[in-house]
Amino acid sequence: MAAPALPGYSPGFKKPPALLRLKRKRVRSEGAPRAAPAKPRRPQLLESVCEDNLTRREEPFERTNIFALTNDFHLPVAVPEVPSSPRHEFPADWSIKTRLLFMSSQPFTWAEHLKAQEEAQGFAQHCRATETNLPQSIQEPKLSTELRCAFQQSLVYWLHPSLPWLQLFPRIGADRKLAGKASPWSQDEALQQVLLSDWSVSFTSLYNLLKAKLCPYFYVCTYQFTVLFRAAGLAGSDVITAVISPTTRGLREAMRNEGIEFSLPLVEESRTRKQKNSEVNLETEAANCLEVGNTKEDGQEPAPSDDDDDDDDDDDDESFSWLEEMGVQDKVKKPDAISIKLRKEKCEVQMDHKPESLALVKGTNTFTLLNFLINCKSLVAVAGAQAGLPPTLLSPVAFRGGTMQTLKARSINTKARVHSAYEDIFSLEIVGPVMPHSLHALTTLLRSAQRGAFSAVLYTHEPTAVFNTNLHCASPALGQETICKDLPACGLHPKTLDQLSQCPTLGKSSIRFLEMKDYAYTWKS
User: Fold this and answer.
1) Mean pLDDT: which of 283-292, 374-383, 475-484 is highest?
2) Final residue of a domain: which of 383, 403, 423?
3) Are 374 and 427 contained in the same domain?
């Protein structure tokens, strides 16, 4: 007796595996050739990296294909920032990096699983500003305790405020990442005042350390702009400097009202360039006029020219004469002081939020800037995810109220296709606010550990790239001996101090790719 059919049951139904077997049999019986399984296509590395740079996204490490870089970035690069010949040092990069990706044919196992003693020693070396000098090449990096302690030392930085459940860098454009996070101070004005008061103490402490040359530099990261304070002797300046970017007309106006003297280096540079171009044009026009005069003396009539300024001047002089004849000259609105002022204001507003809005404050005006920022009500957001949250302070050395933090590091080993074979490629990822001294310290370690051969992709926090602008404030009397004498205890390695004391050369850009071959650097910005 047949079993009763269940509701909704179809006798012809087969499970998926059985159905697939049936289809395979049908294909074989018809004699059709079996299609070769398609090889999984490897994503192009360069495209992945470029996509990350364009969209400023922080992709998980596993989704980034790092291997084609070893081929793509070895191609000649026709960029002015890339030196024609390798150099033993790369230029100082004052931008803050959010991520570094080092690659090498030698493993990074020496950076893995630090022992408790090595970690503690690294922290102690940082706090005591211990100078570590490694040999040019380390034969067994994994067995080098000195290398591993120095690696831990290079990852340390100092932060305020410290709220473990919030990512406090970057702050510009961070509302989406901070949305939904607990912020009990957002609706509590008393708590906001406590946070801001504590922040003011830390900010003042950093400035005092900077003035005493016990701190080389530090960053103030607000939700709208970033300020970089540098001690006298750094970036080619013999006085304390502070650079602010990006700025707005309102911020600049408020600074002027507080008596803060500042300059706009990129605007002045553009104005100077235009002035030089106009002088060249005037010389050209003078030469043309001389040529025309010589032609008239020869009895030849010059050809009519659209660029004849004399006719334009005549037109300007007589532009209102026909109106006077008609008696309506008083009804014509001529440009007045208000119109000219509005035109200037429009030009000033157009550079807001752009790199060209970079403002430079020097000398004693930096102290006035400190007081201005402490008392500036617009420094803290009043609405949104960052409401009531004081700016982030980042420093390479300890300061009052600062919390010790470490950059996150991890290594990954994989294979990359080179020509027709696969080769081992080793990578080391560093994540966090990587400041200039950390970048230099890490490359110095890798120089020894990777036997003078590695490459790196650098991800820049874009609003800080303009900090590499040459401010043209170097003193002719400023020399290497003076710098070493004035900044002996700022907490930086002498070689790092030497790099950061040089005048910036990268302009409005920053280093995006760095490569070392045979202990010499090349880079791309």
Assistant:
1) 374-383
2) 403
3) no
Question: In 243-382, which residue ranges form alpha helices assigned H by DSSP?
Answer: 249-257, 265-297, 309-317, 321-326, 337-350, 365-375
Contacts of 224 (CB under 8 A, 6+ apart): 172, 248, 378
Overall domain count for the chain: 2
Could you read off the pLDDT of 199-215 as tens digits, one per residue? 999 999 999 999 999 99
- Cβ atoms within 10 Å, residue 412: 15
The residue-averaged pLDDT of 437-444 equals: 97
By the 8 A CB rule, do 126 and 156 touch?
A: yes
Question: Which alpha helices (DSSP H) does 30-97 contain, by range?
Answer: 45-55, 69-72
Question: How far apart are alpha carbons 147 and 410 in whole angstroms?
Answer: 16
Q: With the CA atoms of 480, 482, 486 and 488 taken in that order, what torsion angle do they form, in degrees rounded to the nearest 10? A: 40
Instruction: Please report whether residue 308 resides in a domain.
Output: no
Neighbours of 466 (CB within 10 A): 26
Q: Does a structural domain hold residue 190?
A: yes
Confidence (pTM): 0.74
Give the model confidence (pLDDT) of 391-423 as tens digits: 999 999 999 999 999 999 999 887 777 777 787
**From CA 181, how far away is CA 186, in angstroms rounded?**
11
Q: Is the dihedral of CA 289, 290, 293, 295 positive or negative?
A: negative
Beta carbons of 171 and 386 less than 8 angstroms apart:
yes
